[in-house]
Every structure is written in C-alpha cells, then in structure tokens.
Amino acid sequence: MEAFMTPEFWVAVGQIIMIDILLGGDNAVVIALACRKLPPAQRTKGILWGTAGAIILRVVLIFFALTLLAIPFLKIVGALLLLWIGVKLLAPEHEDAHGNIAGSDKLWAAVKTVIIADLVMSVDNVIAIAGAAQGAGEGHQMPLVIFGLLVSIPIIVWGSQLVIKLMDRFPMIITLGGMLLGWIAGTMLISDPAVVRLDAWTWVPKIPQTDTIKYAAGIAGALLVLAIGKWVASRRPKAHETAAV
What we know:
globular; Integral_membrane_TerC; transmembrane helix; membrane; TerC family protein; mainly alpha
C-alpha cells in the first residue's frame, strides 16, 4: 500500500491522465461517429459499451507493452516512437483521419466499430502510457495503468469537448503535452537494459542511472520535441494557404 502513496506513483498517474486527454481526443470523435446512427435510446449504451471494450483492450495491449519494454533495445525504439508522436502533436497534419469511420444503426455493430477503430489508433497511447508507468518503478505498474485509465474515462467521454475547446483556446496545453512525451522518451531511452546492464551488451555505451542524468535526459527529450515540432510546423503550409491553392 505504501508504494501507492509515493510521489513517483502520483506523478505517473498525472502523466497517464494528461496523455489520455491529449492523445484520446480521437476516441471521443470515433465514439460519436460510430454511434451517430443509433436510436437515441441505444446511443448511451453504445457509447458506454464501446468505451468499456476499448479500455479493456488497451489495458491488455499495455500489459504486453510493459512486458516487451523489458527486452533490450525496445525502450530505445519506443523512445524514438514517442519523440515522433510528440512532434506530430505539435505539428499535426491537416487531414480528416476519421472519414472512414462508418456509423451503424445496430448497437453491437457500433460497439465493434468503436473497439476496432480504437485498436488501430491506440499505438501512440499504449507506448506513451507504458513509458509513463515505467517511471513509477516495478511492482505496481499495471495497477497504475488501470487506475490512470479508469480516471481518464469520464474525462474523455464526458469532458472531451471541453478539453478540445481549452486546447484550442490555450495552445500551450498541447505544447506542454508534446514536451511531456519528449520527457518520457528521454527517460525511457536511458533506462533501456542495453545501456543499464554492465554485464551484457558491452559494446553499447553505458549510461549512469543517477537522478541528474534522468532529469537531463527528460529535459533534452522535451526540448528536442519542442524544437523539431516548431520547425516542422513552420515549414508546413498553413490551412488557408492550402485551401487557396
């Protein structure tokens, strides 16, 4: 029980909730599109069952992600993927990613659509949440993941529109979210078994596991995402320029 009262645990919970809010905006859109043709009496059921199925599936995926991240070099790959996701968050592409989500007038068909679409779109969430959970230490990572996801469900389902409006009004929220992903990527990269274990993979440079190194890696990752994201955004044509062409 004491492990659940440590600052590291609650910091990781906060990171998971923020990640789910920032990367889970698509979930609310998918749920709305998949359930839009349901009769009003079944719409709430479709939303609740679809969300429940998607969350259960995500917990299973994160369990495997946490297991896989113990394999040498996979944390490095995961960190690079997180950096890319963070850059995408700061410099999104102007396209409708949900145009192929079909609505259904049958309850279970709509629920199936929500779950399948969420599975396809969950890679970023799964990697990011697994990375955040790694920072809480061994022994209670899965309870942490489940707790963080459960807390985030009402935020995503009922508060998604408010969150989207806040992000539109205060773009700094998105910037901080992208930098958070960069922070997690930096701390994940330096904790890969290949750079930690002195008795194995001797050809790989080893990184001391001190708090100073950890914070420096996190700051470097956050600043790297910020710099690349701003650079990519500055080189990409604006939406009104694209429309005028």
